[in-house]
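thought: fold this chain, then report.
action: predict
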Amino acid sequence: MPKIDIDSAPTGHGTGYPEPFDGPCRARRRWRLGDAVGLDQFGVNLLRLPDGAWSSQRHWHAGEDEFVWVLSGEVVLVEDGGETVLRAGDCAGFKAGVPDGHKIENRSGAEAVLLEVGSRAPQGDSGVYPDIDMIFRPGGFFHRDGTPYPKHDRRT
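observation:
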């Protein structure tokens, strides 16, 4: 397995969320480490969250497991059951199909760095954002009534 040059890995800065849901996630930055070496059964990202940034809107996946490991800094995991502080060395996992929305917020005053790992459902994934009028499925983001949101991608 080749060593990954993180500086050369594909990156994404910002979010594809439609307005007004994109705001808290605009400052996030991901290095797609799994893509850098052609992994196609699971994804691996290095996520940098500046103070005040969120990893995502609170959501859950129907078809993909997720795992996060805090490498540095401090973040707050927000789930249906409440909030949990995660510090360097802590990790959390989210089983596909469990309707417990989650997100990670950086409220620490300093940057936090996480490793994200997620399965890649070959048939595509879908999920729900329980706090807002939005779902996702292959093809993009939709209102809960199925009306599509306009394409809006602030990722660079």
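thought: worth noting. Helices lie at 33-36.
final: tokens above.
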